[in-house]
Amino acid sequence: MDSHYGLPLTRLLPFYTKLSPGDRFIATLLGLLVIGTSLAGLIALQRSFLVTVPAKGGSLTEGIVGSPRFVNPLLALTDADRDLTALTYAGLMGTDGEGNLVPVLAERYRVSEDGQEYTFSLREDAKFSDGTPVTAEDVVFTVEKAQDPALRSPELANWANIRAEALDARTVVFTLPKPYAPFLVDTTLGILPADKWRNVPVDEFSFSPLMTNPIGAGPFKVARVSRDKDGSVTGYELRASDTYVLGRPYLDVIYVKFYDDVTKLADAYERKSIQSAYGIPVKDALRSPYSRVFGAFFNSDENPVFARLEVREALSLAIDRNRIVTEVLGGYATPLTGPVPPGSGVEAYELPEGDGVELAIEILEDEGWTRNEETGGWENEDESLSLPQVTLKTSNVPELKAIAASIETDWERLGVPTEVALYEPGDLAATVIRPRAYEALLFGMVIGRDRDLFAFWDSGERSDPGLNIAAYANRTVDLLLERIREEQDPEVARKDLAKVSKLIASDYPAAFTHAPDFLYAIPNSVRGVRLPQIASPSDRFATVSTWYRNTEEVWPIFAGK
Fold first, then answer.
1. Band of the pLDDT at 3, cuts 50, 70, 90?
2. CATH code (residue 502)
3. Helices 398-414 and 356-366, packing angle to 10 deg
4. 208 and 332 in one domain?
């Protein structure tokens, strides 16, 4: 017996034509409804199997304080220089969104057993933005230029005494004078195209057109440079590079605009002249720990009373770090009691419970200190010591000035009269820090991505140009700092760093106060943004090639393509 299901249209047509006009209308509607429902079902079924992935397209307008002068990895000095360099150049290694080092121009690398030889193999498809291949010769040329004292590159210290040799077009070997595990961080240095720079004399490097119109192997390339009537750079148009070795960025264009100061930058953001900027306290801004540590550093050479542990400990305990973070810094910081910034994998020291000033008084009294009834100052008659006053020196910038005032309030509550002396940043470095002319210095240490504390705390770095501004000396810490530099196992190095942190914190060479947050205002419509721990503001562009505004739906088999 025939079934009506599956009858061909030719056999149904006679029945349809015999229907009355009204029935025919109803049948037509029912047929259309069945077809529509079937199509909707098929579409829904298909969509249930599709996945949403980033798609190419869209732009971003970024605001930056300052104006670029040296868009070059060897000479970049300002944040504007470094930002544009990060967008247009690439190194053998780079950083991912978690702050891990990952190969970029390099396909792979290996380290010799003695930790002194690093061999890198370049990717076959690594190219500069003009389409020319990146070779080992380019890498060697870049390193040798960094090592040229006549160029006065800020990278010189990182590359001094390191031999770079090209074994073939795609293989380069670095030989270190001694093991140095953080060396991989140095290989994030952007690579220059040797054929473009080789014939530029060192004394003409800074005047080359390539300084403002760079040719690098980064995710973006320069399409246009805007200038005002005086010739000053006011903006850049950066286009996605089709030759970027990790894949063309999703964003088509990044427009960069430059402003004289933070106030003008914030105003431009409010007026929506720009869409993204760092360093302005905007609601819903992305936050990441800054790799910086601030504190009041003590100098016992200038004031012998700071040689006493209980005095340093009392002054540290008296500081209300929570007030500094909440009232002075608007909540955009993390209180600290040790030398390692948050995000470094080292457990932070907890703040003491209770009134810090009362705890500080107990510390002093337990060690034989008493208050002079006439002067109100602290004295230790057994040791013939007194703590009549402290002068705290720092930079005359609003943030540090406000923090210094907060510390002054706490120390005076403790009974230690405090005078805050302010210096312009350049004068502070030249007349205070370098000659170590301070008894207490409110200052910030910039800890690099390598988390190498050697320059700040090794006893051999106590004199200028060393950065051990607390004149700290601890033999155990010295040995650990050396061992961390040589340790290839990250977990072992992290454990040693934790030991260093604990030892330094318990010695109170400084009253550590806080680590600031890095704030990056960027639209929610820009997705894929991941901020690692920030050592330099340009680190915010670590994953810029994967930022996206557009999406599309594809079958899972195509999702990874």
1. very low
2. 3.10.105.10
3. 50
4. no
